[in-house]
Write a structure and sequence with these properties.
The chain has 418 residues and is of the alpha/beta class. It is built from 14 helices and 13 strands. The protein has two domains: 131 residues, Aspartate Aminotransferase, domain 1 (Alpha-Beta Complex), CATH 3.90.1150; 259 residues, Type I PLP-dependent aspartate aminotransferase-like (Major domain) (Aspartate Aminotransferase, domain 2, 3-Layer(aba) Sandwich), CATH 3.40.640. The longest helix is centred in the C-terminal third of the chain and has 22 residues. The mean pLDDT is 96.
Length: 418
């Protein structure tokens, strides 16, 4: 493939060779699952070698030592979300981390019993929140406040803020709307939540690794995220969670032995002594084999630099947007991702009534997008491995599909949600 002039001057271009990209494909689905990097492969093999050769000795003598790996990975991710090392830990999966954070932070008292979410939040977040309302004897029909979207695609920060009334104990919002790619103003939301006495948490799954954050400066109470999207930590990779320092020392809602003080963990005392920081929110033994790829994956992200990643991400999505506008308008595509740089996450969302079948045709043509039923095609040009030339080729192949109407050959089916 001939390089685009912007690829020839791209400072992040060398990182493409760090990844195993599917042969013959233009991979635009890194907002669902990032590809394997050579560094992740190496760190995974290293952990396997440690297990093979040292057995249980890997817990204290491995490189890295398994006993403190969750905290070390947390410190590495803390740099990406704007937090102190002790405020972040690698643990569990995304939804399990949300369960832990809700168990720890949702304290209905007096008039404050409600939880606020937005109408466009990822469904799994709402499932978890509704379960905690029921566990506390509350009724989701009355105690779950859903801040509306006026257009079904994007959100207004003011609408979210207005929903945080004096009856609200806690609010959970995403950083990026997964269906449209809209980036929310988390700083404004966090400041307003604190002024209203509302505990505020953020789901960073669709932004961590592609958008810089400043959680501690903003005053967020908690946050959580996955590692298998822009962080390229592998399918089902371990998640991350953040607890603001002002909440250090509080007892976790869900206790388990790996949340213990490190110096007391093997005392096996009857009384639980939680670690003071985010590490105290761990529960069971860390999944070391699932954490191993993240060690190498984070090395790549830090080598590139999150600010450089963000700059290229904005350039890629802007370029892809311009191609859609010039090449595809006549075919009925509507871009719903905001134009403004400070309102755009790492992916673009195109709306078309035949989105499902178009995605099938794209995959057949060697372009890997993501379908969100019923009518959304998501494309994520990821800075670490996507070229500007990939964007050119992807849109040209999509244009050919539309001209030839080859998508009509495919049945209408419900797409995967990831």
């Amino acid at each position: 493939m001939k390089l685009h002039p912007l690829d020839e001057i791209d400072p992040l271009a060398p990182f493409r060779s760090e990844f195993y990209l599917p042969p013959g494909q233009i991979y635009l689905d890194g907002n669902s699952l990032g590809p394997l990097s050579k560094r992740s492969e190496a760190t995974t093999l290293r952990v396997l070698e440690t297990w093979k050769n040292q057995g249980i000795g890997g817990w204290l003598e491995g490189s890295p030592a398994w006993f403190t790996l969750a905290e070390e990975l947390g410190a590495s991710m803390a740099q990406l979300v704007g937090a102190e090392a002790e405020e972040v830990v690698a643990a569990n999966s995304t939804t399990i981390n949300l369960h832990q954070l809700l168990a720890s932070f949702y304290q209905p008292e007096g008039n404050r019993t409600k939880i606020v979410v937005d109408a466009l939040s990822f469904p799994s977040d709402r499932y978890a929140i509704e379960s905690h309302l029921r566990l506390r004897g509350r009724d989701p029909a009355t105690d779950l406040v859903v801040a509306p979207s006026l257009d079904g695609r994007t959100l207004s920060e003011q609408t979210l803020i207005d929903a945080m009334t004096d009856e609200v104990a806690l609010a959970v919002f995403p950083s990026v709307i997964y269906r449209s790619g809209q980036l929310l103003d988390l700083q404004r939301i966090a400041v307003e939540a604190r002024e209203r006495g509302v505990i505020i948490g953020f789901d960073l799954s669709h932004s961590v690794g592609v958008v810089p954050h400043a959680l501690s400066d903003w005053g967020a109470d908690f946050a959580f995220w996955c590692s298998y999207k822009y962080l390229n930590g592998g399918p089902g990779g371990v998640g991350g969670l953040y607890r603001n320092r002002r909440h250090f020392g509080t007892t976790p809602g869900l206790a388990g032995w790996f949340g213990s003080r490190k110096d007391r963990q093997f005392a096996m005392a009857d009384q639980f002594e939680p670690a003071e920081g985010a590490g105290g929110l761990q529960v069971g033994t860390p999944p070391i084999l699932s954490m191993a790829p993240l060690v190498g994956a984070l090395e790549v992200v830090h080598a590139a630099g999150i600010d450089a990643i963000r700059r290229k991400s904005l350039a890629l999505t802007a370029y892809l947007r311009s191609l859609v506008a010039t090449e595809l308008t006549e075919f009925g595509f509507v871009l719903v991702t905001p134009v403004e740089d400070d309102r755009r996450g790492g992916h673009l969302a195109l709306v078309h009534p035949e989105a499902g079948r178009i995605c099938k045709a794209l995959i057949q043509a060697g372009v890997i997008p993501d379908h969100r039923p019923p009518d959304i095609i998501r494309m994520a040009p990821v800075p670490l491995y996507t070229q500007f030339a990939d964007c050119d080729q992807a849109i040209q192949r999509l244009k050919t599909i539309m001209v030839q109407r080859s998508y009509l050959e495919y049945p209408v089916e419900r797409g995967m949600i990831t």
